[in-house]
Amino acid sequence: MSTRIGLLGIGFMGKTHADIYLKNSKAKLVAYCDSDPKKAAGDWSGGGGNLGDAFGKAFDPKTLTSHRTAAELFADPHVDLVDICLPTYLHGKHVIAALAAGKHVLCEKPLSTDPKEAQAVAAAAKKAKGNLMVAQCMRFWPEWEWLKQAVQRKAYGKVHSAVFRRFASTPTWTWNNWILNAKLSGSALFDLHIHDTDFVRYVFGEPRAVFSVGNGGKATKGGIDHIVTSYLYKNKNLLVSAEGGWNADPTYGFTMRYTVVFEKATVDFDLGREGKVLLLHKTGAKEPEVVACRASTGWADEVDYFLECLARKQKPKVTTPEDAARSVALVQAELKSVRTRKVVPFKP
Ligand SMILES: NC(=O)c1ccc[n+]([C@@H]2O[C@H](COP(=O)([O-])OP(=O)(O)OC[C@H]3O[C@@H](n4cnc5c(N)ncnc54)[C@H](O)[C@@H]3O)[C@@H](O)[C@H]2O)c1
Description:
alpha/beta, Rossmann fold, Dihydrodipicolinate Reductase, domain 2, 2 domains, six-stranded parallel sheet, 11 helices, globular, binds nicotinamide-adenine-dinucleotide
């Protein structure tokens, strides 16, 4: 039997998730709620996202139940899983309310911008009947999953260095421009860079400390637009860093990259390149090898994984609510390092 989905928030990410559910036979999209009267009436056009207005023509949102409030959606007996794609500052309280109503919950990242709230939500999830998974999509992104396995299997020996980079034009499409209010979104640090912070923890474990530099004021008032972090590990020969920013020119678009130097090879990922993962061996080969990964996205695969866990009545293990809360805490440590210009210890 398919899992019945109720979507909360039909913006960039809500529409992305809707498209994924419509293509996944394990799911049935049945209901939604959005506070925008136009979207509530079934017109999902406009706003940001890769689906644009064409999405409205591909399927008719009027075939779904449109709830006036989140509470109504949580009380809907035809909904098994609530998918929360609200602006970040609304995540915590809505996750807790949906779990209290007995639903399974998929919540967009970040779980919160406040480590204490994130911990409280994780604690609530532990006691809940339903499962909570936070959509830390990089853990499911095919080329990133490949990297995780290569590091874990020591496929090319030990890692000497890993550099992650995520850079974008300033996001301008969000509802009431909430994303450029640091108090509501946590700025580029919690919205964009947390993807890399979470993945660094996933692959290399908890760092002992962080050292970050960053600046702001161009895109986000009072927040961080651009950050560069070194994650400091017990092994001083392991260099791990991540750079993230969203203050590039509007014509710049989006880049997502990593370069990892192993003992016996170097791997390089570039989302915008035809062969996304290149493997460079010290074997005398003139051309780098293109690594074939499944053609999918972390967004589609995280949803599929959660649906599979629910069908098997298993708790998701790839990412847990405690994990999501620890990533929030690590980003908070990075923010403290930017503010103090000091190395900040990390004790999760
Ligand atoms: N995983 C990723 O790659 C990724 C990418 C983009 C955004 N996100 C995350 O997804 C979340 C949503 O971001 P977005 O870009 O879709 O935002 P958005 O502004 O495009 O969409 C938010 C939607 O929520 C609705 N809304 C606001 N308050 C509401 C309420 N109280 N009740 C019901 N509806 C309400 C708005 O009308 C809007 O349609 C954020 O937490 C963001 O960090 C994740």
